[in-house]
Amino acid sequence: APRDLPETLVDKLWAIADRHSGKVPLHARLFAQWMHFVFPSECPYPHAVEDPAVLRPSHWSGQRQATATEEERTRYISESALQPEAALGEPLLSQWDDLEVLLLEDLPLRGHKLFWTLLRHGAMAFAFLSTLLAGLRALVRLPCCGKRAQKEKRLVLPGGS
Questions:
Q1: Which candidate, 3, 2, 29, places its Cα nearest to that of 16?
Q2: Taking the model in full, what pTM does it have?
Q3: 10-residue averages of pLDDT along the chain (161 residues)
């Protein structure tokens, strides 16, 4: 459905495009965040993960609790109720986060990862060239081709006596 977007949202979309050389990457975090502000019920807010360890199940197993206790929830609700209205402000200004995450972007290789990547590519090139060389050798050894065929043609005597 067509919507009249606030100018601040339109500006945010232009800022995303400016950040990426005039294009808006559809699979990036900032565009997902923009979609959340345009369609808050349909698009979830894309939270940024500061520590990738929290994505592992081992991080949450054992001693750590993944949920808040009743006391912690009550305290959080009462603290947020005490916040002045001015501090809440416009949702864009208080909740917008300029952290960008490009989901399909390759991360730069560092140290030992670069070494192993180069080693793997070198091994693949070696395997390819070895296979190509073996194929060429087999082709030269065929009876119809190569030096062996030329020697055999010289030894053939005309039919005979």
A1: 29
A2: 0.43
A3: 80 92 89 89 83 65 70 85 52 71 58 80 93 86 62 59 52
